[in-house]
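Input.
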Amino acid sequence: MMEELRFLIEVLVGGLLSGVMYSLVAIGFVLIYKTSGVLNFAQGSMILFAALTVVSLLERGVPMALAIAVSLVGMIVIGMAIERTVLRPLVNRTPITLFMATLGVSYVIEGAAQLLWGAQVHGLDLGIDDSPLEIQGVLVSSFDLVAAAIAATMVAVLSAFFRLTRTGLAFRAVADDPFAALAVGLRLPAIWATVWATSGIVALVAGLLWGARLGVQFSLSMVVLKALPVLVLGGFDSVAGAIVGGLAIGAAEKLSEVYLGPLVGGGIESWFAYAVALAFLLIRPTGLFGRKPVERV
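Output.
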């Protein structure tokens, strides 16, 4: 009985640690959607570009700290450039137009990454030990533990930023009512540029963690698909929802694979989260923490 309970805890902890990393990717979406209503499909390509830039610089003999610093500046510039050259001219266009714009940006970024750094697969070593760590009889991956701690710190910093700083309050004001925010003197272009720059920083952290776990390859951009069920569950405009949704999806994936997988032949982890998301779309389309849209007539 104790062995079964210990195994259950191991599976649950592993799922929760993965869920924290899902939350980090999802927050990149929330930042943009919350302030501008744009579902930024280019977030995955930004994650790929960030990880590929770091690992390519490392392979050329650049020290780790400098490679990360250069990539950080690059991602901030890319985020601000996307907002200035693509999204700002399309303000007040339909959501599908904005979505297609970010989809186009996604392919442009992937093409630029291939031109700059090539298409080969890279391993990324962040110097984090990946040996199992025993805690009260429960085995936990050391890498997952450290990666989750880094992701959790990033999530906590962003949450505090939104709630406690003047700029964060300005973000929230723009998200609540952009016209009212504009009327009281908030500079929307500057706020949007800052949000996109922050999204670039989030992409760098996510790219480093996911690149170290999966390897830096072009399929890394598809990690955004892991964030979609998180967003549906938690709500597209809620930082708290991204956190709760990530933890729930991570835990549900691992538990379903271990306990339901043998009953259906395995492979359930790859699609179970989307089944949960579909159920939520039918029952509660705005997610656990999302706000219902209010239309003025």
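The chain has a mean pLDDT of 83.
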